[in-house]
Design goal:
The chain is α/β, with parallel strands linked by helices. The chain has two domains: 283 residues, 3-Layer(aba) Sandwich (Rossmann fold), CATH 3.40.50; 204 residues, 3-Layer(aba) Sandwich (Rossmann fold), CATH 3.40.50.880. It is built from 20 helices and 21 strands. Helix 13 links the parallel strand 10 and strand 11. Helix 2 runs parallel beside helix 4, helix 5 crosses helix 6 and helix 15 packs across helix 16. The protein is globular. It starts with 5 loop residues before the first helix and ends in a 14-residue tail after the last helix. Bound molecules: glutamine.
């Protein structure tokens, strides 16, 4: 029984020069304790492997199991920090500051679980580890090879993740499609992992695509068959197949796939398109995917039925609220951005709005505003575009393009009582508008757009001024924000106030950052004396992190130097977005009493007397 060969794991890491099995094992790793589910795509990319894998992981988590997802990217970049969101979707920042792929956002939202840099790996990181080790003499004079050294590193990282996050099941998503040059060594490593761990430890899932050409009017399985064959050629026999398709996959196609891939048809599933990704876990459960996984990995004993019932009930409540047919309100929310045509670049904002709309029963219509076209627009033209909107978001961004247009949007919102949420760059634009048009500093700007400006109200972070160059110089990841009592921010984040703090006490919250510039401390006094409130600060340093206008002056004007969208979860939407949503509903439906919109998210001061 080769899978029981004790030598493979026993010798690993110790006598690496004497064995062909290079499989270093992290300390504390116990074979059999951790299981692995591997999701690979065939036929084409963009099938939603991340959505599939996270939905499956969620089903197991709901059963009381500890899950740890990992995305293995084929590219050589060390992280996603320098990737263009146009091409690659948004950069998703984790609490520990790792800049990752937007799929990690899907995992965090679906699992309601904070991830770390251990949950994301690129080929670049793997090669770097191998090359660093080689330079430090880590291979004891051996020639360093793709197999076993690079593959050994992959297995090591997967097992380390299992130990570090004490995972019952690690969910491995292999980026790209089977057959890509880039991910070949991942697949080989996973094949080895399955061999070393033995039967019942690793479950391979092939996600494939069933074509349904309109001209034929029927589903064709050939491309899927060939894709799965490609997996098998690499030595991977899938245990389950999930078929993405526009419509429900027909029994005939299911049978064909089963026949050609040695997978019993009860383990071939139809994963057809659905309105919301959040309904996928339930759809998978109905088809019995979770049960099959438990059987394949021998995990039935670990299920906690009471945990599962409670989790499923909570989730199905949320999913029921997603149905847009019976919503009470409609709001029009504008989002400015130079990536306006690409929703993926703002995926988390889109999701945050979705969560809040579901919670407050509002259909959210998003309007993308191309601010590069607004740079030279007249106030009348700006008003024409913004007047129909009930709320405006100026999201994060880099560089000068479109910033004058954004400043005009902020000004319009401030002067016309349109609910406004500024995110990162949008926070900075609010400071610039306020400095220019309220404090009278006509040339106020950010040194990012105009290094020579006489009034650099936004400038490089004092502690970062010395650091040059792109990448690695940004203030990244989760940081504490001290919230000032009696403010809109304190009202919105009230649920985050620790139990031992009284209502009037300052308290800290945690949000995620990704920026290089900030409010220049020398302008704080001027801005505050003219009525801008900095309601969130760094607990020790003079770094301004939340700003707002008094709620007596404006129904909702707030900004965060951080990215609240990154921590918005379906069951726990971001407070800043909830506040925006409630205020936008109020704006759209001025005749509806505030109480009928939300007693939680509308500050009392903005409600008319007696409402
Ligand atoms: N460009 C600004 C900065 O670097 C804002 C960054 C952002 O919006 N993420 O500070």
């Amino acid at each position: 029984m080769p899978h029981n060969e004790p030598d493979i794991l026993a010798s690993a890491g110790h006598k690496t020069t004497e064995t062909e099995f290079y499989s270093p094992i992290p300390e504390g790793y116990q074979r059999g304790r951790h299981k692995f589910v591997v999701v690979m795509g065939t036929v084409m990319s963009g099938l939603g492997k991340g959505i599939f894998s996270s939905s499956l992981a969620k089903l197991l988590k709901d059963k009381g199991l500890r899950v740890a997802p990992i995305k293995m990217e084929g590219y050589l970049n060390l992280d996603s920090g320098t990737l263009n969101p146009y091409r690659h979707g948004e950069v998703f920042v984790l609490d520990d500051g790792m800049e990752t792929d937007m799929d990690l956002g899907t995992y965090e939202r679906m699992l309601d679980q904070n991830l770390t840099r251990d949950n994301f790996v690129t080929s670049g990181q793997i090669y770097k580890r191998v090359l660093d080790k080689e330079r430090h003499g880590g291979y004891l004079g051996r020639d360093v090879q793709m197999i076993p050294h690079v593959t050994g590193e992959v297995k090591y990282l997967l097992r380390s993740l299992a130990v570090k996050q004490n995972a019952d099941v690690v969910f491995v998503e292999v980026g790209g499609t089977v057959g890509d040059f880039e991910n070949g060594f991942y697949i080989e490593a996973l094949r080895e992992l399955a061999f070393e761990e033995g039967p019942g430890s690793v479950c391979f899932v092939g996600l494939t695509y069933i074509i349904s050409p309109q001209a034929l009017g029927e589903q064709k399985s050939k491309a899927a068959q060939l894709g799965i064959k490609r997996m098998m050629e690499l030595g991977v026999q899938p245990h389950m197949i999930a078929c993405r398709c526009r419509n429900v996959v027909t029994p005939k196609v299911i049978e064909k796939i089963a026949m050609f891939s040695n997978v019993p048809s009860r383990r071939v599933f139809s994963m057809h398109d659905r309105k919301s990704i959040y309904s996928i876990p339930e759809a998978m459960h109905k088809q019995g995917l979770d049960i099959e996984i438990l059987t394949l990995l021998n995990l039935h004993q670990q299920v906690q039925p009471a945990h599962e019932d409670a989790a499923r009930q909570e989730w199905s409540g949320f999913v029921a609220n997603l149905s847009t047919d019976k919503r009470k309100f409609t709001v029009n929310v504008g989002i400015t951005g130079k990536y306006a045509e690409l929703r993926d670049a703002y995926a988390s904002i889109d999701k945050a709005l979705e969560h809040c709309g579901a919670k407050l029963s509002a259909n959210v219509k998003i309007h993308w505003l191309d601010t590069t076209e607004m740079d030279d627009a007249s106030p009348a033209r700006i008003a024409e575009q913004l007047e129909p909107l009930d709320g405006v978001i100026v999201p994060g961004g880099f560089g000068h393009r479109g910033t004058e247009g954004k400043a005009s949007c902020v000004r319009y919102c401030r002067e016309n009582n349109t609910p406004y949420l500024g995110i990162c760059l949008g926070f900075q634009m609010a400071v610039i508008d306020f400095a220019r048009n309220v404090c009278g500093l006509a040339d106020a700007s950010s040194t990012e757009f105009n290094p020579q400006t006489a009034n650099p109200v936004i400038s490089e972070l004092p502690e970062q001024k010395k650091i040059e160059g792109l990448g690695g110089t940004m203030r990244l990841g989760g940081k504490d924000v001290l919230v000032k009592p009696g403010t809109l921010a304190a009202f919105l984040y009230a649920d985050h106030r620790p139990k031992n703090k009284a209502a009037g006490d300052p308290f800290t919250i945690r949000e995620r950052f990704r920026h290089r510039y900030e409010v220049d401390p020398s302008y704080i006094e001027t801005l505050e004396s003219h009525g801008l409130i900095f309601s969130g600060r760094h607990p020790q340093q003079p770094i301004m992190q939340i700003l707002e206008l008094p709620i007596e002056k404006h129904p909702y004007f707030i900004g965060g130097q951080f990215h609240p969208e990154l921590t918005s979860r379906p069951l726990h939407p971001s407070p800043l977005f909830m506040g925006l949503m409630a205020a936008s509903i109020r704006h759209a439906h001025p005749d509806v009493p505030a109480q009928q919109i939300s007693t939680r998210w509308l500050p009392l001061a903005t409600q008319p007397a007696g409402a």
